[in-house]
Amino acid sequence: MKTAYKFRIYPNNQQEAMLDVILETCRHLYNTALADRKNSYELDGISRTYEDQAAILTLEKKDKPYLKAVFSQISQDVLRRLDKAFKAFFRRIKSGEDPGYPRFKGKGCYKSFTYPQVGFALEGSKLTLSKIGSIRIFKHREVEGKIKTCIIKRDHLGHWYATLVSEVEDVPQVEVKTTLGVDVGIKSLVALSTGVTIQYPRYYIRAEHKLAVAQRNLSRKKKGSANRRKAKLEVAKISQKIQDHRDNFLHLVSRELVDTADLIVFENLNISGMLKNHNLAKHIQDHAWGKLIQFTQSKAAKAGKIVELVDARYTSQKCSQCGAMVPKALADRVHLCTNCGLEMDRDINASVNIRTLGLRGRAYEGTAKAGL
Ligand SMILES: [Zn+2]
Description:
Blueprint: E1 2-10, H1 13-44, H2 50-61, H3 65-68, H4 72-94, E2 112-115, E3 120-123, E4 126-129, E5 133-138, E6 146-154, E7 160-167, E8 179-184, E9 190-192, E10 197-198, H5 202-219, H6 226-260, E11 263-267, H7 269-272, H8 280-303, E12 306-310, E13 334-336, E14 343-345, H9 346-359
Parallel strand pairs: 8-11, 11-12
Antiparallel strand pairs: 1-5, 1-7, 2-6, 3-4, 4-5, 6-7, 8-9, 9-10, 13-14
Bound molecules: zinc ion (ZN).
Zinc ion (ZN) binds at residues 319, 321-322, 324, 337, 339-340, 342.
């Protein structure tokens, strides 16, 4: 099983200049290799493969010192990325779609490079990269297993990150004794079938408010002005902060979910998301929801636990006690069943239904603890 860890790294000025040069060289190589594929096909009818281009690269290195300055596996990975882009392109043509031809990368559009196997080492608070040196790294959690791959990335604020992908042995699955249904709340982040709702922390809501103010401020600035640039940077900074806060929080919540039950059941957004009304706020919420599922899946895999996604249509309308349909408007916060009299928070009622859907067809249905 693979796990990815993303850490901020703090290159000094000299190192940062070298990282920038590598990105620029990779971009140049990508574009050159793309042009080579295009020309070889159009002029000579030859379809270049990854192997062809890797062999050409080895030859070219002899008289192009700037190529030599980049660790060889990094440049091979650039060719592999291009190969992937072409394979995806042909696959889509084959299936009858009309995809765009792989594109040349403009300045600043090539943002990461990869050490696929070797050329990097993590020791304490230092990440050593071949041909660059030791860079300070902020490791907010321990890396488990053996690190296989290292990806270096620059974000739109100019911050640098290392994503380390490690491999750990699969954990045997535990016997399912407890089950938890999780529903995406309208006001809260999640509602659990245990009756618990989890809200976003206050600092997160405060930061969102700050973002709204910064965005309003940006919209008032004149296009092309220095003030607009400043306001834009401010918006980007706050957005990044919100994203970091949210990810940290989602890590805490997913940890809690995995600690609570052996089988965790979520709504499958790919099925039901289409049917819901879509606005921007909802879109952002869906994004957080997808991340929560992803974080929970990776933590569950490490603990030998199971995550199941179910088609959650009608789970907010249906009574979790008697099964009667109780139609509600979005504003109705309470589920009040006219058939059996059950009164419950609407999101909790939905999460109990989701839990039931996840249990369907499982042998231990009768033995799993109620509500859990
Ligand atoms: Zn009922």
